[in-house]
Amino acid sequence: MTDTTTLIILGASGDLTERLLLPGLASLLKSDRGVDVQLIGTGRSERSPEEWDDVVTTAFNGDAGSDLAKKTLASSRYIQGDPTTVEHLKALFEASEGTPVMYFALPPAISTKVIQSLAEIDLPDGLRLALEKPFGSDEESARELNAELLKIVPEERIHRTDHFLGRATVLNMIGLRFANRLFEPVWNSENIEKVEIFYDEVLGLEGRAQYYDKAGALIDMIQSHLLQVLAVIAMDAPSSIDSVELRSEIARVLRATWVKDADPVASSRRAQYAAGTIDGKDVPAYADEDGVDVERQTETLAEVEFEVKTRRWAGVPFILRSGKGMTKIRKEVLITFKPVPALPEGLKGSSTPDTLRIEISPETMELGVTTNGSGNPFDLEKSTMSVTLGKPELTPYGEVLSGIFHDDPTLSIRGDVAERCWAIVAPVIDAWKADRVPLDTYAAGSTGPKDWPA
Ligand code: NDP
User: Which domain, by its residues, includes 78?
Assistant: First the structure.
């Protein structure tokens, strides 16, 4: 066997491939973590060699940059065919060199069909599978999908992708927490008032109704990415950063994570954007967008309060929120500390609590602390210490692909965790389906519904 990996992208004519996967591959191949990759894209759509070459070259930003990147570019090809058929899958394996990695950049229902077809084939040694979110549509379907996958490859060769785990700031949280003396002693309910994780986008639907209208903000963001961010913030220190220890700590903390007070009605809110203005441009109401089924009542803004029932976190609210069509981008973790138990007599002024703000994008970190004022030194004021983290060499997808090519599932979601994340949000999904939580509205380009407490 050679050291070559063949990356077979199923659904290579789609948005994910062009916008995220190929640029991620390029960033990896141009870095010093690059590997020898043969690239095969496949899909039912026709693509001439020139068209495919154009797509890949654009993603590689014209300049191939490194010998590995040049080699991948030169050998890359598109093989047209239906990935759900046994014949086409066999042809793809025959065209591969070395170890194949099959990346499912497909709608989830189609991925399931491909997995069934793979079960009928004598598979190449070492085959790795990479699957995108959403992984199943509830706990039971995720369990069934896991069972189907395990019939064809072992768990360590299944990469359930969550590119948030490849984001520099999320990874940095591990370094920040466990490689400093400063934070870990205060990282608990005695010192922390609340943890908020925001992922607000200015963008609206942008023509993605086919996928988004069935998912909504809760499933698109909170059930997947934001629960992973919560896990990295709330987990205990792993004894090592590897696929066993890190993922065990993530699994352990998520097993202790629940909708606050088991009361989804009091602990969740949902809303959908109405017509509004964003950056001076009129934006139609979500319900008027092409492909939206108004009966579904899909939320474009979701907020859920969770609790982590461990000794470290008992009583601390973890509030996760994500919205589309908001007035400004806000992608951050905000940790608010408790006020000091008592101020010495004579210290006056700002008593707002200390905060740690970790921006997911762009990568910055800000510690908000109380300091002496510039006038009367005993009049307190707030100051911020900010750090801009170095620009990561790899994009989040580059990081994800690096793990897959190096046969290291540390940053991929373990099967039991994929199931658990559905179980955590199930009470909210049920309450929303039963209309026990009203669907509020907000104007596109606003901060959310007017009567939502800030
Ligand atoms: P698309 O809807 O663009 O579909 C990808 C490709 O799937 C299509 O180009 C199509 O290729 C193929 N396909 C569609 N229907 C069928 C079918 N019936 N049989 C066989 N192939 C089919 O998806 P995206 O690229 O947007 O996303 C892919 C996956 O990644 C999804 O699971 C999504 O949830 C996930 N994801 C996407 C993100 C994004 O920003 N796009 C972000 C994070 C995750 P063809 O017609 O050529 O066969």
Answer: 5-132
